[in-house]
Amino acid sequence: MWLLWTIVAYALNSVSVTIDKVLFYTKQIKQPAAYVVTICTLGLLVFVLAPWGLGVPSVKGALLSLLTGIFFVAGLWLLFIALKHGEASRVTSFIGAWSPIFVLLVTYWLIGDKLSWLEFGAFLLLVAGGFLIANGRGGLDKFGRWVAFGSALGFALFYTLSKEVFNEVGFISGLIWIRVTSFAVAMLLFIIPTTWPAIKESFQVQTTAKVAFFTGQASSALSSLLVNYAISLGRVALVNALQGLQYVFLLLIVALLSLNRPQLLKEELGGHVLVRKLLAIALIGGGLALIAYT
Fold first, then answer.
1. What is the pLDDT of residues 213-226, one digit of tens each?
2. In angstroms, rounded to a whole number, what is the distance separating the alpha carbons of residues 286 and 19?
3. Are 68 and 162 in contact (CB under 8 A)?
């Protein structure tokens, strides 16, 4: 069951990432820190789930939630900075290729979690597909790669610690406390002088941009809920490695937008670049097939 929720989650997240990139590219949203604060504030809507499982965490649960929130905000902030420096599919695939590697190492180091040989084979195919999309000419510049690398590490620690939070306090309670600590950490971004003016300016954008923003955030919120639920049920490394599916959905969306609204996104889809991305999809499909077989 975790596999189905993961597939749906990454399909929804591909919609969110595309909208984020369009909003940054069209300069409807100019400041990554302001975007992170807004997203973490909207994340408090998870309190609607409180009647079904909110509890008071132990000291260990509270500390784990705080650390998880810190790494979530760091990963998210660096992701949006990277989106300003590269193609949407390249940024997400670069992060999605490195993050599972970090997750695999961290989960083995912290909790001794190991993959079977078949699962490890699927893991390698999924990660190889991500690297194949991320690399090559175009896409991420040198600065963007370092920022995306930091984002991958932040998200890896976020995913790994989320599993520990769910084990400690339960899924719904853990999800709520992670969102609370993420909001608290995001408030520190007001130290950046341009954050508040950028937030106020975001309320003055066109109605279309506002609708796009909230559509993207609704997709992102539901995606996050499903990914976290899948993590609570399955293996963190495999759920994370399945981000490769997101690239497939993302490439389909980008291809459609490139045909109808090419001015919205800068994305290479011709020649050897297209061949490389199609090969990456084949690798990701092979990894998915192995996971389904297991």
1. 778 878 888 998 89
2. 28
3. yes
